[in-house]
């Protein structure tokens, strides 16, 4: 194995988390190497490439499942099997990671989220938390994290308006909200009549040209509708490739090595000494020594790398002890409704990944849960992300799936349907976790990560509640027919739901119940920082990227403090 000269910091994964940390550390003079297992990406790759088949259905930007995948089982009594084709979620690959193919919806979690256990007990008592639910406080409050949210939003140029039911802001969004379509205006007017609190959702698709504090200038969104699963040809959608990575490179202190597959964190005692990676173009194994190791890949890969490296204490669901792999959570996306209009038409093919309107009256603890059989809730939104022709064919329930009547209904409702959807929070349970699969391995003979997860009664009750609320809104909007998805069956790895996987290397205020502190520094290895949604002790009723960005800026601050003084960062 070839050993390279030591650097100050090595970062595993160059997406949002890795890009932010590289930018902040390189600007402060640290020598940083970023290791990315995928290839280089740039805005020019997407010029005039509105190819739904290539990107949305053949997954051009995603991890190659034939070389590395995950295995899944709904409970410990059955054998896990590999995910052989994409379905429930999409794992990014290459420079920028999932930050290239995201939609751009950029929320802040609610103050309730960060103190969920204490706030729930304070209002409803301990019995509100069912047996097996392992919610815990995050070891940080919203007010403590708010400056980092602000920094992320200014870097990305987030376009939005203030959420009337959210935590306090230190400043306004850096750019105005996006345009309002006729469908969005209908939702807004209806929600207000229902005494709800709608607002235009925060968007990383720029509403106007913007230059951020680092001097990065980007143009405005063209509303082409090719955001999710696609790279942005205009650079209007904030992603690491057009924001933080160029800033890091410009310093001369940051080197990216693509096609570099990190397989082990090398460590002695309670400190890492570097990483071992394979150059996938040659097969050569290389050691990169470093004073500080930052793990900033996707949730599954963060957990897998720690477990394969035997770093941190693996979680044991039988005893509830250990932390690596604990509190895997997902999202409840089933509680939604679609409305069909006989005499109104909408241009739903135009749009943007984060074009829409939302409300939080049923999110977090913004409503009384005393008589409900669940905690938390969901944001409820009408989004206009651009209904591309292959993926979308809305017809009322009961319509034949082929033939003359199917075609007639498809044509009739192509422009006469709207969806109001809830994005429900996911609570952790003791028997939901990530570990190494004992059977299946990757091309390097390393064990794959295994998911053990299923929906619980908490989730079914939440989905029923949310679908009813979505149905009510659409009826008030004037829909002639509303089909609501009120039943949540067993979790299935096949149909797409969201790429909002969280947990496994969770943060907290004690090494007994968490893997990292509030700066995402490992309790068990002081020079290792594990950054990303793997730090979430539960998942909220929002997209996770805004919170990943805020925590990344806080982690970067912690790394800088550690580089000067060492020891636990406080």
Labels describing this entry:
22 strands, FAD/NAD(P)-binding domain, 12 helices, GMC_OxRtase_C, 570 residues, flavoprotein, FAD, GMC family oxidoreductase, 8-stranded mixed β-sheet, 6-stranded antiparallel β-sheet, FAD/NAD-bd_sf, 23% helix
Written overview of the protein:
There is one protein chain. This protein is of the alpha/beta class. It has one domain: FAD/NAD(P)-binding domain, CATH 3.50.50. Helix content is 23%, strand content 19%. The protein contains twelve helices and 22 strands. The protein has helices at residues 16-27, 52-57, 98-101, 111-114, 116-124, 142-156, 182-193, 244-250, 299-308, 404-413, 457-476, 545-565, and strands at 2-3, 7-12, 32-35, 70-73, 81-82, 198-200, 210-211, 217-218, 254-257, 260-268, 271-279, 285-295, 326-329, 336-340, 356-359, 378-383, 417-424, 433-441, 447-452, 481-485, 502-504, 528-530. Strands 1, 2, 3, 9, 10, 11, 12 and 22 form an eight-stranded mixed sheet that branches. Strands 6-15-16-17-14-20 form a six-stranded antiparallel sheet, covered by helices on one side. The protein has a four-stranded mixed sheet with strand order 5-4-19-18, with helices on one face. Strand 18 (433-441) and strand 19 form a beta hairpin. Helix 1 (16-27) runs parallel beside helix 12. The protein is globular, with a radius of gyration of 23 Å. The two termini are 37 Å apart. The mean pLDDT is 96.
Task: Give the N-to-C terminal Cα separation.
Answer: 37 Å
Taking pLDDT < 50 over at least 5 consecutive residues as the criterion, the unreliable ranges are none
Q: Report the average pLDDT across residues.
A: 96
What share of residues are in beta strands? 15-25%
Distinct helical segment count: 12
| Helical residues, percent | 10-25%
Number of E-type strands: 22
CATH-defined topology: FAD/NAD(P)-binding domain
Largest sheet: 8 strands, mixed
Which second-level CATH architecture applies?
3-Layer(bba) Sandwich
Name of the CATH class:
Alpha Beta
State the shape. Answer: globular
- Kindly report the name of the CATH homologous superfamily: FAD/NAD(P)-binding domain
Radius of gyration: 23 Å
Judged by helices, strands and strand pairing, the structural class is alpha/beta
Taken together, the total number of domains comes to: 1
Keywords: FAD, Flavoprotein, Oxidoreductase
Organism: Aneurinibacillus thermoaerophilus
Protein name: GMC family oxidoreductase
Family: Belongs to the GMC oxidoreductase family.
């Amino acid at each position: 194995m070839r050993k390279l000269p030591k650097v100050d910091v090595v970062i595993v994964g160059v997406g949002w988390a890795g890009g932010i940390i590289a930018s902040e550390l390189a600007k402060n003079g640290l020598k940083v190497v970023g290791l990315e297992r995928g290839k280089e990406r740039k805005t020019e790759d997407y010029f005039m490439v509105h190819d739904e088949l290539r990107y949305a259905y053949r997954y051009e930007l995603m991890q190659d499942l034939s070389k590395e995948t995950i295995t899944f089982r709904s409970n410990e009594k059955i054998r896990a099997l590999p995910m052989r084709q994409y379905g429930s979620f999409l794992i990014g690959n290459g420079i920028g990671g999932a930050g290239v193919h995201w939609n751009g919806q950029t929320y802040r979690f609610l103050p309730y989220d960060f103190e969920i256990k204490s706030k729930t007990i304070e209002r409803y008592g301990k019995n509100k938390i069912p047996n097996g639910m392992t919610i815990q406080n995050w070891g940080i409050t919203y007010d403590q994290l708010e400056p980092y949210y602000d920094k992320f939003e200014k870097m990305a140029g987030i376009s939005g308006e203030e959420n009337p039911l959210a935590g306090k802001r230190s400043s306004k969004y850096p750019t105005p909200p996006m345009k309002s379509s006729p469908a969005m205006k209908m939702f807004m007017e209806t929600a207000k009549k229902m005494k709800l609190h709608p607002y235009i959702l925060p968007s990383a698709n720029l509403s106007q040209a913007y230059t951020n504090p680092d001097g990065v200038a980007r143009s405005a969104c063209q509303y082409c509708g090719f955001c999710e699963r696609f790279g942005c040809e205009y650079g209007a959608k904030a992603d690491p490739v057009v924001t933080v990575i160029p800033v890091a490179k410009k310093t001369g202190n940051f080197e990216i090595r693509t096609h570099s597959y990190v397989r082990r964190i090398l460590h002695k005692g309670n400190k890492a000494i570097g990483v071992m990676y394979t150059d996938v173009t040659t097969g050569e194994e290389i050691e990169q020594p470093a004073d500080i190791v930052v793990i900033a890949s996707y949730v599954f890969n963060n957990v897998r790398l720690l477990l394969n490296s035997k770093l941190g204490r693996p979680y044991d669901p039988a005893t509830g002890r250990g932390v690596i792999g604990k509190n895997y959570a997902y999202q409840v996306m089933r509680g939604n409704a679609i409305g069909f209009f006989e005499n109104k038409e909408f241009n739903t093919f135009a749009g943007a990944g984060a074009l829409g309107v939302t409300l939080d009256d049923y999110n977090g603890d913004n409503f009384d849960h005393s008589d409900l059989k669940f905690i938390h809730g969901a944001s409820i939104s009408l989004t206009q992300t651009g209904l591309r022709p292959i993926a979308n064919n809305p017809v009322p329930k009961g319509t034949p799936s082929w033939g003359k009547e199917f075609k007639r209904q498809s044509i009739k409702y192509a422009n006469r349907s709207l969806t109001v959807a809830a994005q429900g929070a996911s609570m952790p349970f003791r028997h939901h976790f990530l570990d190494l699969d004992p059977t299946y391995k990757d091309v390097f003979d390393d064990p794959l990560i295994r998911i053990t997860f299923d929906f619980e009664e908490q989730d079914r009750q939440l989905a029923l509640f949310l679908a009813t609320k979505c149905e009510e809104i659409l009826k008030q909007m004037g829909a002639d027919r509303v089909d609501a998805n009120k039943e949540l069956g067993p979790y299935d790895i096949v149909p797409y739901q969201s790429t909002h996987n969280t947990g496994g290397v969770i943060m907290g205020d004690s090494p007994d119940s968490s893997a990292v502190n509030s700066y995402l520094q490992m309790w068990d290895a002081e020079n290792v920082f594990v950054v990303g949604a793997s730090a979430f002790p539960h998942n909220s009723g929002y997209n996770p990227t805004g919170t990943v960005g805020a925590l990344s800026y806080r982690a970067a601050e912690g790394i800088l403090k550690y580089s000067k003084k060492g020891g636990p960062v406080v």
